[in-house]
Write a structure and sequence with these properties.
Elements: E1 2-14, E2 17-19, E3 25-29, H1 30-36, E4 43-48, E5 54-62, E6 69-72, E7 84-94, H2 95-100, E8 104-106
Parallel strand pairs: 1-8, 2-6, 3-5
Antiparallel strand pairs: 1-7, 3-6, 4-5, 4-7
Length: 115
Amino acid sequence: MHIQLLKSKIHRVKITQAELHYVGSITIDEDLMDAANIIANEKVQIVNINNGERLETYVIKGERGSGQVCLNGPAARKAQVGDIVIVISYASMEFEEAKVYKPIVIFPDEQNRLI
């Protein structure tokens, strides 16, 4: 039996940009992606602390060290620049493996930099 569980999380990161006229996705600073063990094209859930919106999309690499977190395409309507969001990725695992798996959770500072 496989179950879904938290794989990794970027906790409380600030939206720096919203680009409505883009193909769609979330662009994230590559340093944050690496620290959270999230890869390009990975499906993620975005939870907006400011307005309660939740959405699913995929990740695009942003410029390393930039602090960039940009919602693209239709997702841009779900948050405003300055909103605080949580980026969550999940994994499917065998039940016994899931019992011992430890998710990676990172807590960036107010400029979306690693602490």
